[in-house]
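Late entry, written up from scratch paper. The run itself happened at the end of the previous shift, but nothing got recorded in the book at the time, so transcribing now.
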Amino acid sequence: MRGVLLVAVLVAVTVCSGLSTVAQAAGASKADGQNLSGVTSSGSIWLGSLNAPSGTGTSYAWCIEAGATLPSKAGSSSSMRAPRLSYALERWTTTNYPGASRDQTHAALSYLTHSNYDIGSNGVSAASRRAAFVSATPSAIKTIAKKMWDQAGDYAGDYAAKLTLTKTSPLAASITNVGVKSDAGKWTAGYAGVVTLSGPARFISGESVKTFTTAASAKSYSVVFTGPGTVKATVKISGLPSSTVARWTGGSGEQDFVTRAETTESASDTLAAPAVKPVITTVAAAITETTNALVLKDSVKINADPAFAGQQVQLVARAYYHGTAAPAQQATVPAGKTPIDLASTVVTLNSSGDATWATPNMNAPKQSGSYTFVISSSEALGGLLAASQTAYGVPVETVRWTPSPKVTTTASTDAPDADLATVVRDTVLISGMPASTPITVRGQLWQHP
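Output as recorded:
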């Protein structure tokens, strides 16, 4: 019989993030942490982070199956809800916990992962494996881990982005309560945020986008309107730890592991920035006259919100001849009516939002009847201060004129002729009537006893 040569091959198997004495296969390898004994019967295991296998999209991985072989590849992934763990992994994977080294920090994170989420292996239940980690892990590491876990209880998700948009004046608004709150309702610091304005508004510094980092208290911003319309403010907070971690399942006999995941939260608020119409009040002066024309004047006051102080507004006065009857007040000028004269000026609103104007003399032909003013104002600030116009036929804006004719006469006689006959003449002067007014004059001669 031929002899059989038996060759004993010693295979070194790496478990739970790897033994320090074993070469790492393609896939995961140990990163930062420390060896830990007393968890499995096979010797020490790695309490720390793994260099994540390619395909996971991240640098670090965390074992949840102590005793199994390290994964040779990423495998398939699913979501596992673990908000506090996700927060801790995001917060301290790349930043050492205060007062701790990188190895201690990653050992504490690994402890949190195993003691809360280890799934067990090789016939050992999840509960037994988790209890073994609690028992075997050094107190110094557990102290760091407890501080991490407590902080995560305050600042882990589910997260809610916050923002409130409030109108503060006809020209401005404020954005308050800007930031992100944890599931425990605490403002959570350290995450990248951006606030964007859309619609007719800008931040007081002129831009429409603000970037910021969330803080332990809410941020606020001042906004100015650039015109009337709907204003929307949106906040987006990115890089937040997701309430879930990615759970990766490898091949047969290879451990499951988790990697951290991020999420983005946003919120928005809207408000209306309406155009504000100023109030125009006027009082027409009594009509005066010259030889050939009537003189019309008006006193005008425009009143806007004090927020519009300093704005310049054009005022236009238009005088209309209505007719012999008094006009009925109406919102707009009747069709076909054209002004007989107009005047304009530019006024600057004072600190109260007011301005006054006395129109210059406005001329009209002498015609019996009613005259009325209509005053209009231009818009300002892109329409936030709206254009305005008074009604037609407002009683205080309407004045009447009726001619007051004056008749003067001068009588004269000629010298008597031979028959003692004489000619009596009378010169009549009529004034105060409109030009081209037809007049009938009757004269009677009386002999006084």
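The chain has four helices and 27 strands.
(Scratch paper discarded after transcription.)
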